[in-house]
Design a protein that fits this description.
The structure is a single chain. The protein has 322 residues and is of the alpha/beta class. It is built from 9 helices and 15 strands. The chain has helices spanning 9-20, 42-52, 67-70, 78-87, 123-132, 152-159, 198-205, 272-286, 306-317, and strands at residues 3-5, 25-27, 34-38, 61-63, 92-97, 114-118, 136-137, 165-167, 179-182, 189-192, 210-211, 238-239, 249-253, 264-265, 294-297. The strands form 2 sheets. An 11-stranded mixed beta sheet has the order 1-8-2-3-7-4-6-5-9-10-11, with helices on both faces. Strands 12-15-13-14 form a 4-stranded parallel beta sheet. Helix 1 crosses helix 5 (123-132) and helix 2 (42-52) crosses helix 8 (272-286). The longest helix has 15 residues, at 272-286. It starts with a strand and ends in a 5-residue tail after the last helix. Bound molecules: threonylcarbamoyladenylate and magnesium ion. Residues 29, 31-32, 34, 58-61, 91, 93, 95, 109, 112, 114-116, 118, 138-140, 177-178, 180, 191, 221-222, 224-225 line the site of threonylcarbamoyladenylate.
């Protein structure tokens, strides 16, 4: 059962404990409700994907208190700093390069070398981040394929029983997701339009801003980065549904009856959530052309989180376009 909790000091403190312990809490932001989990906890982040029932690992927005905290996770250019100073806290999400020592789960980036950061303005969201003592990864608090939630009742409609708690902050004031701007290049690119417009961003920076051209017509979602070719793929060839490694290959097993020459096991107990939590870090660790000729992966059941894991593995195994 999902508990609906009043956002009193005590309620927020309890929600913070749930997050710090790896649980999932939906909470209000000024845009829409977020489905939160600790962004530096692989299993909590895997739990977010599980609760949403997403067939893909779309990268998630990480919610922080402000620039000082964000600086520890990502590299800020002068331009990014200006945007944070102008629009944070508020409905602006910036896609930035991850720091090399970034403590955030690789799963929040879905294997990309970037991370999306936003400092929400909603007082309950801010109090919750502080109470958790962790940055909070949060996609919109709705099951995959349904409309974003702008009230606690919307959250419960699709997520009841799938998350631990909902902080009841009433209706969201903006009701539209944050603007997402990619600031990893020289010219900022709007990946998803939102309350903060390209004109406002352009005015603050005194430069032009590009809009992402290839957006889907029917929704406000950005081009799903999971579909972009820039999405991280190992440099080594990946072979799927392998029951054992061939000479020179690293082998990623799943479950108890792994071959003796297994290099890594996504989950010794066959737990898909654990497998999801280890997927990206395992691919990164084994992508060693100096040690291996390729990466062979055991077959993963096509159920629950297995669907998203297999989707990602198929992309990793697809022939590379130069
Ligand atoms: O207003 C909002 O942004 C709400 C509240 C909860 O903060 N959150 C939200 O999250 O709309 P979500 O997951 O529904 O949308 C986040 C979008 C995804 O479409 C994802 O593809 C994109 O952000 N995104 C996240 N990280 C990214 C990255 N590293 N590069 C490009 N896009 C990214
Ligand atoms: Mg969404």
């Amino acid at each position: 059962m999902t508990e609906l909790v009043e956002p009193t000091d005590k309620g927020i403190e309890r929600a913070g404990h749930v997050l710090a312990g790896g649980g999932l809490v939906a909470f209000p932001t000024e845009t829409v409700y977020g489905l939160g989990g600790a962004a530096d906890n692989d299993e909590a982040v895997a739990g977010i994907y599980e609760a949403k029932g997403r067939p893909q690992f779309n990268p998630l927005i990480v919610h922080v208190l402000g620039l000082e905290e964000a600086d520890r996770y990502a590299l800020f250019t002068e331009m990014a700093r200006k945007l944070a100073q102008a629009f944070w806290p508020g409905p602006l999400t910036m896609v930035l390069p991850r720091r090399r020592d970034c403590p955030l789960s690789l799963l929040v980036s879905a294997g990309l070398e970037t991370v999306a950061l936003r400092a929400p303005a909603h007082p309950i969201a801010r109090a919750l981040i502080a109470a958790a003592g962790h940055p909070i990864a949060a996609p919109s608090a709705n099951a995959s394929g349904t409309v974003s939630a702008t009230g606690p009742d919307h959250v419960l409609k699709t997520l009841d029983g799938r998350i631990d708690m909902v902080l009841d902050g009433g209706a969201c004031s903006v009701g539209l997701e944050s603007t997402i701007v990619d600031v990893t290049g020289e010219v900022p690119v709007i990946l998803r339009p939102g309350g903060i417009t390209a004109e406002e961003i352009s005015t603050v920076l005194g430069t032009e801003v590009h809009a992402h051209s290839a957006r889907k017509k029917d929704e406000t979602a950005p081009m799903a980065p999971g579909m972009l070719t820039s999405h991280y793929a190992p440099s080594l060839p990946v072979r799927l549904n392998a029951s054992s490694p061939e000479a020179g290959e690293a082998y990623i097993a799943f479950g108890a009856d792994a071959p003796s020459d297994t290099t890594a096991n996504l989950s010794e107990t066959g737990d898909l959530k654990q497998a999801a939590s280890r997927l990206f870090s395992t691919l990164h660790a084994l992508d060693r052309p100096d040690l291996y000729s390729g990466i062979a992966v055991a077959s993963i059941p096509e159920t629950g989180l297995g669907v998203a894991i297999n989707d990602r593995l198929k992309r990793a195994a697809a022939p590379k376009t130069p």
